[in-house]
Design goal:
Distance between the termini: 14 Å
Number of domains: 1
Number of strands: 3
Radius of gyration: 21 Å
Helix content: 55-70%
Largest sheet: 3 strands, antiparallel
Shape: globular
Number of helices: 13
Strand order of the largest sheet: 1-2-3
Structural class: mainly alpha
Amino acid sequence: MKVTIPIRKLREIDRILVVVPVIITIIGILTIYSGTRPALEQYHPPFYIRQLIWLLISLVAMAMMFVFDYRWLQRLAYPLYAVGLFLLLLTIFAGYTGMGAQRWLRIGPLSFQPSEVFRIILIIATAKYLQSKRAPIDGITLAMSLVLFGIIPFSLLYKQPDLGTALMLFLITSIMVLTYGVRKRILVTLIALFLLLSPVVGQLLWKGLKPYQKNRLIAFIKPEVDPYGIGYQIEQSKITIGSGKLLGKGYLKGTQGPLRFLPEKHTDFVFSVFSEEWGFIGSLVILGLYLLLIVRGFETAYIAKDPFSTLVSTGISSMLLLYVTINIGMTMGLMPVVGVPLPFFSYGGTALLSNFMAVGLLINIRMRRYKLFY
């Protein structure tokens, strides 16, 4: 594989796709620092330092994602997908457990979460498969797509258990399939089957959930049933967000995180910490940055010159939209707590790396949208 970008073409790198994720990440690191700062003791967990190091690594990875022709990824899609499934399977048997789930693999002193990198692999493999079929796709292609790129990854992630990521990946695959096109008769039949079978499938899934996962759903439906137990996370998150009011308390003046009222203040509920300090206005600014990034991603899908790059851009943009919507909805009590991090903002090295790689792929596609580059 060789670099295909002349130096003069580096000027065509989309600055919005480079700058916006970096700004969001830096704000996230500052929020992680504030939320985990010591209030009653002297020890300050080094989460913010680790996240800063991962930011530097991620920037290098993002650059590496747009210096080659993305069609190489199209050729390697299926081998990458096989490796990704193997890593998910390996995690079930050889991964180490943290916070009640077996989601990480260790390589010496380092650990990483295969499911985070697998998100990008899944999007590439799904795009490769769909672009090889004529649109709108028939029933066999639809069934194969949902089994290969929906049900199989869902089952492996559900086993870890990582229900949040499993649902996200299934939704991403479904969006890509629908975007590519499904025959109306097949789509109507599929919706009817979903409505008919959803009670049975829902009951089977409920029986397979861990106790803490059931508690999260109960807490979402009725958090007041046990505000100091299963409903504690959601109630404290809403209190934290509400206490910020219009303009917030100010940076380093929030209390819910440092005083340990708010659980997972640097990961799933880091947006709550930010809202407490910067209020409604600050939250609108962050949402505006995410909106700009996501719209830019869908615009990339619109202007892309081949089906593969259109599908990849759609998958990445849908992924960011789903993660942002569900995480923020989760912190506000509008959605159940499913352990979905806020892209570029929540603490997590592997997640940050994969998100920047995804953005690097969007930049790659935008740079090569003209036939001159093929």
